UniProtKB/TrEMBL annotation:
This is Interleukin-34. Residues 162-186 are annotated as: Disordered. GO terms for biological process: positive regulation of cell population proliferation; positive regulation of macrophage differentiation; positive regulation of monocyte differentiation. GO terms for molecular function: macrophage colony-stimulating factor receptor binding. It comes from Chelonia mydas (Green sea-turtle).
Length: 186
């Protein structure tokens, strides 16, 4: 559990708004998108809906980990080794792999049926599944919002310190998509 906390803290440090903006937007062509399965667009509203269906927190974390691991691999696959975002994305993939190792001890038989079905669809990369073109930054923004929803109550270091970030969590819990963790513009 302590190693999981350190990994989540490292992810939080890597997934700051400034880094997501720089590596997933500014270093990509304007309007660049990555094709992902419909199930790989995991938003806060999806988590809220699953919580309403009494899906366990551990199953939700497993879903978040599985979906975002695949999303990162798809982003990383489109990058050349010399691309400025290549190393950043590789570091994120490595952190997700470490987190997956922590969850290996979690018995897959304990995963809720709804979650297991979605994870199987994502891991199978089913060609029959509908595809969506999504900007890389939007995918990581969703990753961060869901991470806050799933881990903020368990780990104090994931709790944002500013009022502005706390409002972003509240809005994410309500299923709103606006990212309020952006710095104030003057």
């Amino acid at each position: 559990m302590q190693k999981e906390c350190r990994i989540i803290e490292a992810l939080q440090n890597k997934l700051t708004y400034q880094q997501r903006l720089q590596y997933m937007k500014h270093y990509f062509p304007i309007n660049y998108t990555v094709n992902v399965q419909f199930e790989e667009v995991l938003k806060a509203a999806n988590i809220t809906r699953l919580r309403d269906q009494n899906v366990s927190e551990l199953s939700l974390r497993y879903l978040w980990l599985s979906v975002n691991s695949q999303v990162l691999l798809k982003i990383w696959a489109v990058l050349l080794e010399r691309h400025p975002s290549w190393e950043y994305t590789q570091d994120l993939c490595r952190l997700f792999e470490q987190l997956a190792e922590e969850y290996e001890s979690y018995n897959q038989g304990n995963v809720d049926a709804n979650v297991q079905d979605v994870v199987e669809q994502v891991l199978a990369a089913d060609a029959g599944s509908s595809q969506r073109a999504v900007p890389p930054k939007a995918l990581l923004d969703n990753c961060v919002k869901v991470m806050w929803l799933l881990y903020s109550e368990s780990y104090s270091q994931v709790r944002p310190s500013s009022r502005r970030s706390a409002r972003a969590i509240n809005q994410a819990q309500q299923g709103r998509s606006k990212d309020l963790t952006k710095p104030f513009s003057r």
